[in-house]
Design a protein that fits this description.
single chain, 5-stranded mixed beta sheet, 10 strands
């Protein structure tokens, strides 16, 4: 229960973070609603006017409601890659059905006597549509828009899994923000959905012609009553302005770098970071230092594991991201050969990237490898010092780790080849939850990063890896060669200046400040950079 009140502390202490994520959330939601309005309202209203196409407007369109948005996003990753467009397509598929169905039913259900009376007055079909059917259908039509807006805002949290940004970045990233941060972001999404429902309800009432509104209220949401042409013109204007305004919010303004600094006039860059604490901190460290030098930097955190991060890089969704040299060789390059040293791993990783038209900045001094840890009392009781010692425990060992760990050569596959461990049971968990799993006794071994802040507590023993399954894992920024040239020497110098300060002790301390002390990665990075004089212009 203590996490719930701490969520409000998180809101107070990280207001700028939440506001920034809220803006991204609203931009994505607004764009999806705007596109859906343009598609659904004209089609639904015209089909209703013709009294045809009920199967399309109701049955077929509602297939969109049955499609899981998460599945749509996953499918779209293969077609559109990561980012804004992918998630927007999924949200449009979700938003169109209620808009289309309500628009059709609203116009199709207009009182036939009112329509016949208008025709008897000499109105043409187009005039009947504009001056009679549309005004009478406004309440029900707007109810569909209102429903779709709430659906979209609530579902836009899924954008985080495909690099789409928004409040979902906080909700799925417990490793960086803790459970209070997850709860805080979830409450913000709920509040946004509630405010949208109330706001669009008020807008629905405001744009409904008065006679229609009174009759709509009196007759249990059945349109009827007097016809007013002026309110319908206002209604159409509101719909057009709404579509334009909501779509236009997607075009934010970028902050330009200051004149006289290395980054002045250079291209805007997007730095990605993977879905765990250390990468979130690294992204902030490089991003803030580059901004101080006048570069225009957008950060895209929580983009996923290595395979997704590399796809985002090669597809142009991000311009660069910090990567581990050993992971480059085993996962990105798929090389089975082992590096002989940290320098050898860096040289091989750099050679691989340069064949693809990319390169690496200088490596960090800190060396962060995957590892296997157990609680110290468990290690003492069972005489565990190295990973191979787990083999004697057979099926008694349950190891929790990230899902991708199970299928990697520098993960469970390599451990079994080198150390046996045939009876070991693997439990896939989101990064950041493994410590809770071992502390509560659900597992007795976990995948860790050797610079994890939690390891500083002294409760855990990291088992030796004498066969170097996990390789050498220094960090360097992966960046396309052409972009590096455009950014000028000041870019690489700034990145290397930051990297040179990142020792094992410094990274473990910063990771602990996020994971244990519940500070945000942005605050932790800013304090480190300031203390090391790396925020000077």
């Amino acid at each position: 229960m203590s996490d719930f009140p701490r969520a409000f502390d998180f809101m107070a202490n990280h207001l700028s973070l939440l506001l920034d994520k809220t803006w991204g959330h609203l931009v994505l939601s607004a764009a999806a609603v705007a596109v859906s309005l343009v598609i659904a309202i004209p089609i639904g209203a015209w089909l209703g006017h013709l009294h045809r196409g009920s199967f399309l407007a109701i049955n077929v369109s509602n297939v969109g409601r049955a499609l899981p948005s998460l599945a749509v996003i996953a499918i779209m990753m293969g077609l559109l890659g990561l980012g804004f467009a992918n998630v927007m397509v999924a949200l449009v598929i979700l938003a169109v059905p209620p808009m289309l169905t309500n628009a059709y039913v609203a116009v199709d259900g207009v009182d036939r006597d009112a329509v016949e009376a208008a025709r008897g007055m000499g109105m043409r079909p187009g005039e009947v549509f504009r001056r009679v059917e549309l005004p009478l259908s406004v309440p029900l039509m707007f109810a569909g828009i209102r429903t779709a807006v709430v659906y979209v805002i609530a579902t836009a949290t899924l954008a985080a899994i495909a690099g789409g940004g928004g409040l979902g970045d906080v909700i799925v990233n417990q490793a960086s923000y803790g459970l209070p941060g997850v709860l805080a972001a979830a409450m913000w999404v709920g509040a946004l959905a509630l405010l949208a429902d109330v706001g669009f309800g008020a807008l629905q009432r405001a744009v409904t012609p008065r006679g229609v509104r009174d009759d709509f209220d009196e007759h249990d949401n059945k349109p009827g009553g007097d016809v007013h042409t002026r309110p319908i013109r206002a209604t159409l204007a509101v719909l057009v302005v709404l579509a334009l305004a909501l779509g236009a919010t997607a075009c934010g303004s970028d902050k330009k770098g200051g004149g006289g600094k290395p980054g002045a006039g250079k291209p805007k860059i997007t730095i990605g970071s993977k879905s765990f604490t250390e990468e979130a901190v690294l992204g902030q460290l490089y991003g803030q230092a580059l901004r101080a030098k006048g570069y225009t930097v957008a950060l895209k955190p929580n983009i996923g594991e290595t395979e997704i991060a590399d796809k985002a890089l090669t597809s142009g969704k991000i311009d660069m991201y910090p990567e581990y040299t050993g992971t480059t060789l085993s996962v990105v390059a798929g090389q089975a050969s082992e590096a002989r040293s940290a320098q050898d791993a860096y040289a091989k990783a750099k050679a691989f990237y340069e064949k693809r038209g990319q390169t690496l900045t200088a490596p960090t001094p800190f060396f962060d490898s995957d590892g296997v840890a157990v609680k110290k009392d468990f290690a003492t009781k069972n005489g565990l010092k190295a990973i191979g010692d787990l083999d004697k425990l057979g099926s008694k060992v349950s190891l929790a780790g990230a899902p991708a760990f199970e299928s990697r050569n520098d993960g469970l596959v390599g451990l079994r080849k080198s150390y046996g461990l045939k009876g070991l049971k693997f439990v896939p968990l989101q990064i950041g939850l493994q410590y809770k799993a071992i502390d509560t006794g659900k597992v007795n071994a976990i995948e860790v990063f050797t610079t994890d802040g939690a390891l500083a507590s002294g409760k855990y023993a990291v088992l030796d890896d004498p066969k170097k399954v996990f390789g050498f894992q220094n960090v360097a920024m992966v960046v396309p060669k052409k972009l590096l040239t455009k950014l000028g020497p000041g870019f690489e110098q700034t990145v290397n200046d930051v990297s040179s300060k990142l020792t094992n002790e410094a990274m473990q301390r910063m990771n602990a400040a996020v994971d244990i002390d519940k500070n945000s990665p942005a605050d932790v990075a800013r304090k480190f950079l300031d203390a090391n004089g790396l925020l000077k212009g």
